[in-house]
From TrEMBL:
Gene3D superfamilies on file: 1.10.1740.10, Winged helix-like DNA-binding domain superfamily/Winged helix DNA-binding domain
GO MF annotations, alphabetized: DNA binding; sigma factor activity
Protein name in UniProt: RNA polymerase sigma factor
A Pfam family assignment: Sigma70_r4_2
Keywords: Sigma factor, Transcription, Transcription regulation
Positions of the RNA polymerase sigma-70 region domain: 34-101
Family the entry assigns: Belongs to the sigma-70 factor family. ECF subfamily.
GO biological process, one term: DNA-templated transcription initiation
PANTHER family with a match to the protein in the record: RNA POLYMERASE ECF-TYPE SIGMA FACTO (PTHR43133), RNA POLYMERASE SIGMA FACTOR SIGZ (PTHR43133:SF62)
Amino acid sequence: MSMPAEHTLDAPVDLAAELARCAAGERDALRRIYDAEGARMIGVALRIVGRRAVAEEVVHDAFLQIWQKAAGFAPERGHARSWLYAIVRHRALNVLRVETRTDLVEDFEPMGLTSAEEDAEAIVSRLSEASALRRCLERLDPTRRSLIVLAYVHGLTHGELAGRLRVPLGTMKSWMRRSLSSLRECLP
């Protein structure tokens, strides 16, 4: 006696149908795509960027893009799997391009961008102890708190921050996005 398709453990996922569900706002569809393809996508990204943590960031960013652009997938123009992997490859190659540009500027200190600045901890400590912003900033990891201060008080760009910490631009953008999201959730 055979089981219905939805109960079969190895049933293939209809990626095109799942993308249509993503376009309709069904978050579980994105999870099903990730469960079906995520490990292979990390493998593709890893072959391109060469570092597991960066590959995971690439796939994370790719899934954000997949969610946002799912409505743009047109099955008549190609296979869903090809569309998904094109996004991953594009993100990974962008990370490599940015890393190459960042590597050209070995360090920002020779450009005079460090010692004149007040450090993030001193700035946060000057905020009123009753301040919601101070309370929320103190909940962040010290590195993430410093990034927020450097970006919003000192005006450093994502690229400058990525160069300082020697991380890919995509990683820096993800860190900033997550840090700002944490602040938004914390602030009334």
